Amino acid sequence: MLFVLIALWSIAAIVWISEPGSAVNRRLGGLAFTGGTGALAAMIDLKWLPQAEEAGAGQSTLRLLYEVQALSSISSYYGIPYFFLLFAIAYSGLRVSRGLAVALPVLLLIPIILCIFLTPYYTIYYPISFKVVVWWAVPYMLTGAVLVLSKRVPPSVYARTHWIVCFAVLPPALFCMFMNYILPSLGMLRMWVYNTWLVGLGAAVFVIGLFTYGFMGMRVLIQRRRYDSTLRAVTSGTAMLNHAIKNDAGKLRLFGEKMKRHAIATSQQELLADVEAVLSASRHMEEMVRRVHRRTEDLELRPERVELSSVLREALELAKPSASSVRLETAFAEGWQCEVDKTQLAEAFGNIVTNAIQAMSERGDAMLRVKLTATKRELVIKVADNGPGMDREQRLQAFEPFYSTKRGSGSFGLGLPYAYHVMSKHKGSLTMRSRPGEGTTFYMTLPKRAVKAVRMD
């Protein structure tokens, strides 16, 4: 039971700390924490109380341990179905009115409050009145399981994390439903001792998922913070570099123009040619630094209401001259009006399309698929190519500033970091899937609430 306690409370801490503002994470953390209180009650019952009695502890100490055990046990039995259903409601994206969303956590507490005040208090063998609690706890957990499984997930990297959530949460929760509520209501007591294996399995899935595809968006969050930190450092560096080089380039131009006038006045053609070369180099150097700075500076959005599919079509039209040998397939959910920075979003989308076209430059059957779909909460722009794809090392570095697979092309490797930055500013995300030989797919996700999306028929 010590393992279960450590595992569940560690999971609770991770999900709470990772994104405290998320209702899904708060409620999942509550589920893990109350599950851990059950393990704490078992530890006190099986080890700490017997050890305290053998050591000759006083009645006050034994009474304190008993009360902690009672509160932990009650917290677990009542908290698990309550937090599981709240988690499932938030995770599934179930649409409820604002008033009901506020009232629901209170309404779901009513059976718990009635059981606390109207049923007998805790005893070692009957910590709760199982024959009463089973009538609301089981419906809570079954409803929660249905809601989690019914969540609609777009076919992206988030689909994998959804199934990781299902495998990590549902088997332990449903097994706990049988062992903690159904079987005890039939007279088979203390069946909770068999929960350890399923909880261990759920914890293992959680850890594996966290470090592979992610869990509840946590791996994405860790990556996002790393990219944000890197981009801030690059932004600061290029800002200082841009300022310093502009000053020095200004001095070069000033003295260069003076030397140029002298060379003309004295008819020194060789000196004139050298000065022109210096002036040209200074202008080129200043322009190159300015271009880098423009791509990395902190963006200031200027939102306007636009029809999203129209923005995508206009950006594709601009890319057509470089895509003459690429077969293009599009499918757009029409009528979605959003408040976005049209220029920045079109530029970010254009960067991704350009990358895809360049990746397929050596293919005779190049195919680019662009799709706009709408889910309950998000608008998803999918850009898929059938190019060479990327291996794991390339995928990990794809969003890093100044990384590029296009050697000798004059690319700064800032197209994807810029696109990522634009999506972050819109409270959205930019993710990708790619494997060698299978092409690359990018997903630009815009939360409907953040961009005030409305469908106009």
Automatic annotation (TrEMBL):
Keywords: ATP-binding, Kinase, Membrane, Nucleotide-binding, Phosphoprotein, Transferase, Transmembrane, Transmembrane helix, Two-component regulatory system. It comes from the Bacteria. Pfam families: HATPase_c. The keyword Transport does not apply. InterPro entries: HATPase_C_sf, HATPase_dom, His_kinase_dom, Sig_transdc_His_kin-like_C. It catalyses: ATP + protein L-histidine = ADP + protein N-phospho-L-histidine. GO terms for biological process: phosphorelay signal transduction system. SMART domains: HATPase_c. Its EC number is 2.7.13.3. Gene3D superfamilies: Histidine kinase-like ATPase, C-terminal domain. GO terms for molecular function: ATP binding; protein histidine kinase activity. The chain crosses the membrane at residues 74-94, 101-122, 128-149, 161-182, 194-216. PROSITE patterns: HIS_KIN (PS50109). Residues 240-450 form the Histidine kinase domain. It is an enzyme of class 2 (transferase). This is histidine kinase. It comes from Paenibacillus agaridevorans. The lineage of its organism: Bacteria, Bacillati, Bacillota, Bacilli, Bacillales.
